[in-house]
Amino acid sequence: MKKKPEQKTKKNRLKTALTILIVTPLFIAIAGICAAAIVLNTGEEKLDPSKLQASVTDLKITDKTGSHVDIPEKYDSYAVSGEIPDKLKNAFVALEDKRFYRHHGLDYLRIGKAALKNIGAGEFAEGASTISQQLIKNTHLNAEKSLKRKLSEARLALKLEKEYTKDEILTMYLNMLYFGSGEYGVKNAARRFFGKDLRSLNIAECAMLAGIVKSPTKYNPINNYADSIKRKDLVLAVMLKENVIDENEYKTALATEIIIKNEVNENNLANNFLIYSIEECCELLNMSNEALLKSGYTIKTYLDMRAQKRLEATLNNPALTLTDISGNAPSCAAIVLDNASCGISAFYSSGAYSPHTKRSPGSLLKPLVCYAPAMECGVLCPASLLLDEPKDFFGYCPRNYKDEYYGKVSVRESLARSLNIPAVDAMRMVGVEKACSYLPAMGIEIVDSDLNYATALGGMTHGVNITELAGAYAMLASGGEYSAPSFVAEITDAEGKVLYRHDPAKRCVFGADTAYLITDILRDTAKYGTAKKLSPLKIDIASKTGTVSAGDENFNTDVYNASYTAAQTAVFWQGDLSGDGSGLLPASITGGGSPTLFAREYFAGDNSAFVCPAGVVRLKTDKIAASESGTLLLADERAPYFTVSEELFSTRWLPEKNNSYSELPRPEYVIERSSDGTLIEITADPHLNYRLIKKDYFGGDSVLADFSGRRKECSITVPPSFGDTFAPRYAIEVYYSDGSRRHVKSYALRLY
User: Alpha-carbon distance 643 to 661, whole Å?
Assistant: First the structure.
């Protein structure tokens, strides 16, 4: 039977539809591939062989005078292919680009998988860069995230694969990588972390190096050993899965103990300074380390080579430091700022302590968050009296060092001796939130959990680094005006165009009067206070020490000295970076010890001098009022020399004046009459002396009582009198002696 025309038509339509469904996607795919091939093989990008070498001769660094400074040798330490063991190459390939030896620069399968995941995530969540692409990105392109840059990266990766062998590409890549702690390239990383050359590495160490590059900060084995070990184990699992190691090698590597040597062996004196200058530039320009090193830029730093040499010699002087509980020299670091520009003149670290390492600052916060805010608000002045005795501040109960308390003490003495209770009390008077609000203005970051009394003594959530501390103390040296510290003064490109210039413009944190008052007290700290080891210098220097207890009174974790002159500010630190307590400091090492000795050695010969601002005056205060009632009064002009002391004051906040000596005022008295006689009760001014005089018509004058006002009052009963013409008369003489003469004023008493 013949098919009906309608059935034949339906069948033809079905065939046509199926053909379209099959052919159209195929056509689109072919068209896409052709379009992609055209896009990837056309473009103006050119491969620059000079950028692929791990030499940084294109980057120039100068000191503050413009003199050329040698780049650290680590940047030129290139590992040739024969030095790099296969197990290290295999670790990177397995982790970073497992089809490295099979693709031609782009891994299309990986690109497809990444695209599907990104579509599912609704964002760019996963990349698909090959080792070739990463090498191109680090050497030829900037960090811009755009389709144009990605296409340029792909085109150059394809060109790279045509010009170089796989082994050459992998070797260049491994020499360009940044591993943290200022280390570039596998050769330097192996030396720094393990103290080995590349050929001596075991599989576990190779896996650890491969794992670090994803996040050189998070997986740095010096600072984050536990995270680095976890990452290493993950890499080993990937290597096993990709069959670059067998089961026995995997188990052996997992069980292998990795010892981190942290060996720093650079000939360049300013090695650390230059490393952090380069890192700062990368942040300022949003460039990768590798791209900056090949940029041809010139970095002008604030490096003062004389200061750098002096700083390094000081911190490496064995005569100036004690040992930690393991018998080793503690980790140490120091930073120096030029006060005028707030440029970092010198930086040195003996180990893993960087300018950004946050630690508890201890008592170094007292001037900044307690006393300076209190003076700025007019709550306290250097002569104000505070009570130094155990107190409960709403559940916070601080203790003084060695549980020693001094009773009623001035702000000057409290700060100079770094007493804890008065410092917290000063914060209480200002208010915690108000006091802490000054810290961000001077470059010290805080979080909400820092808004408590513990911050007065340095008990912060995340701590402070020495760069922030140096900036804050330089603010005091600069009259209360702050500018953020910087390693870099200026960056110019190869044509001399200025890409960045540090702006030393300052913002006001405290008035010049407040800053000078704190500075003057810290001068005393350097003379007789906790930094008294500076006293032999005989220079104009202000200083503050800080000591952080380990929780056990027998040990400390961190000790500091922050010192400044009119010209420069320096912060010195020693402490335990071991992570396991093996580097704890014995309690005998405090901020007033080794760190202050470092400051003494460094600052010797600094002849700059502080200048008192117009808003600060030196006035005499009344010692008797202070001791008798705790009241701060300015002294009477006629006060005897032995009743006054001198102190500095802000003209914004002057106390009232005592006029007792000028006026010799009539004392207050009460008279009570009875048949037995008349009782006279005299209330005295503690500054003055008193005599009760009887003026007898027949017997002359006689003294019935002679007493000092410090007795507060005097009572005396005189015989009854009938008030006739010849009855005795009485008077009170008020007097004082200034050492050369006696000043007297007499007041008659009316008894009848």
Answer: 11
Taking each continuous run of H as one helix and of E as one strand, the counts in the chain are 23, 24
Which residues, 6+ apart, have CB-to-CB distance to 57 below 8 Å? 71, 76
**CB hemisphere CA count around 615 (13 angstroms):** 14
Cα separation, 432 vs 411, in Å, equals: 18
At residue 496, the pLDDT reads 92
Report in angstroms the alpha-carbon separations of 164 from 87, 131, 149, 168, 400. Answer: 21, 13, 22, 6, 68
Q: What is the 3-state secondary structure (H, E, C) of 337-364?
A: EECCCCEEEEEEECCCCCCCCCECCHHH
The better pLDDT of the pair 426, 717 is held by 426
Architecture category of domain 664-749 in CATH: Sandwich (2.60)
Q: Give the confidence band of 184 by pLDDT, cuts at 50, 70, 90.
A: confident
| Of residues 536, 588, 79, the one with CA closest to residue 322 | 588
Q: How far from the centroid of its chain's Cα atoms is residue 33's Cα?
A: 55
Mean pLDDT of the chain: 87
Distance between CA 371 and CA 425 in Å, rounded? 10
Domain boundaries, the chain: 1-42, 49-281, 305-603, 616-660, 664-749
Residue-level pLDDT at 4: 54
User: What is the dihedral sign for C-alpha 314, 317, 322, 324?
Assistant: positive
DSSP states of 248-316 as a string? HHHHHHHHPPPPP--------TTHHHHHHHHHHHHHHHT--HHHHHTS--EEEE---HHHHHHHHHHHT
CA distances from 258 to 169, 211, 222, 253, 720 (A): 29, 14, 12, 10, 102
pLDDT band with cut points at 50, 70 and 90 for residue 285? very high
**What is the average pLDDT across 467-472?**
98
Instruction: Compute the average pLDDT of residues 477-503.
Output: 96
Does residue 450 surpass a pLDDT of 50? yes
Q: Could you tell me the end-to-end alpha-carbon distance of the chain, in angstroms, rounded to an integer?
A: 157
**Nearest-angstrom CA–CA distance, 545 and 573:** 10
Q: What homologous superfamily does CATH list for 49-281? A: Biosynthetic peptidoglycan transglycosylase-like (1.10.3810.10)
pLDDT at 77: 73
Query: Do the beta carbons of residue 604 and residue 535 sit within 8 Å?
Result: no
When pLDDT is cut at 50, 70 and 90, the band that residue 127 belongs to is low
How far apart (Å, rounded) are the C-alpha atoms in residues 96 and 90? 10
What is the rounded CA–CA span in Å between residue 750 and residue 728? 11
Both tokens of residue 364? 């170094």
How far apart CA 214 and CA 713 sit, in angstroms, is 81
For residue 239, what is the enclosing H or E element? Answer: helix 225-241
Say if residues 192 and 78 touch (Cβ distance below 8 Å): no
- Between CA 448 and CA 358 the distance in angstroms is 17
Say yes or no to pLDDT of 116 above 70. Answer: no
Closest C-alpha to 593, from 333, 370, 321: 321
* pLDDT tens per residue, range 536-571: 999 999 999 999 999 888 999 999 999 999 999 999
**C-alpha–C-alpha distance, residues 605 and 334, integer Å:** 18
**CATH of 305-603 given 3.40.50.720, 3.40.50.300, 3.40.710.10, 3.30.565.10:** 3.40.710.10
Token readout for 654 is 């002057």
Which position has the token pair 């106390």? Answer: 655
Are the C-beta atoms of residues 418 and 458 closer than 8 Å to each other?
no
Angle (CA) 501-503-504 rounded to 5° is: 135
Q: Can you tell me the distance from the alpha carbon of 715 to that of 717, in angstroms, rounded to the nearest whole number?
A: 7
pLDDT of residue 37: 44
pLDDT the model gives residue 724? 65
Question: Model-level pTM?
Answer: 0.72
The pLDDT tens digits for 244-283 are 999 999 999 999 999 998 776 544 567 789 889 998 999 9
CA angle 196-199-202, nearest 5°?
A: 75
Place of tokens 């005393």: 524
